Amino acid sequence: TALMIGFPILMLYFYLCLAFHRGHLQNPLSKEFWANGLPAIVPTYQAAKIYMFFNVFQLFTAATLPGVKVLGLPVPSLGGKQLEYLCNGVATWYVDLILVALLHLTGFFPITTVIDEVGPIMSVAMIWGIIVTIGCYVVGRVTGRDHRMSGSIPYDLFMGAILNPRIGNVDLKMWSEIRIPWKLLFFVSLSAAVKDHEINMARELQAGLTPQVWSLFGGMIKMNAIKTSAPLLFMLLAHLLYVNACMKGEECIPTTWDIFYEKWG
Known about the structure:
Blueprint lengths: L1 H20 L9 H7 L7 H20 L3 E4 L12 E4 L1 H17 L6 H5 L1 H26 L9 H7 L6 E2 L2 E2 H7 L1 H27 L6 E4 L4 E4 L5 H19 L8 H4 L5
Antiparallel strand pairs: 1-2, 3-4, 5-6
């Protein structure tokens, strides 16, 4: 119970410290701290649209795009049946990158919108996580698909009730483990990097400086020099490599302990 209540509050606290106090820790019991920061974390319609569309789109691509089909380990509760997993992470990853680039370059959805709305998006994600957790617990109990229940509602909510939750051919446990958090982390980093570049470019223009231009491929392509800070570029590269590795190694996940034994809590 303490973990389920404490961690969302801790995330919001750290975000407000970062957004309004340059990362310096503040007194978490200060009414002024929360009063000043509350508008930055209140869920908005825009944040809800972004997060829910992202989830729905990831579910759609997970169910439809081509990929490797892998059998999981025999499930004792299903009489030793081996469930099939469509591991199409690579295909969905490339589609995501192409779509995000098109949306940004056309101006339909600038990627910087994500970092502008990151506080409300985080709140929406937490609320949605709580709703899904309670919903899956209730469905598991009502339908009799619950496994290894302790009898303690807070504990069982945290650990989960259903072992293999699915919508069609999509295993929700694996999908939520690999598709939502890591891709979202990368796009938040990408959004922050682009935003930092735009801010630094605007400062140079205001100062009357001529933007540095890079000439690529013998002058065939010319582009403004990237003005994103080195630490942000480093984190962007790290998240890019990690997500890329996760998507390309997705077929190794169905036989892991997380999928075979752990429930979806």
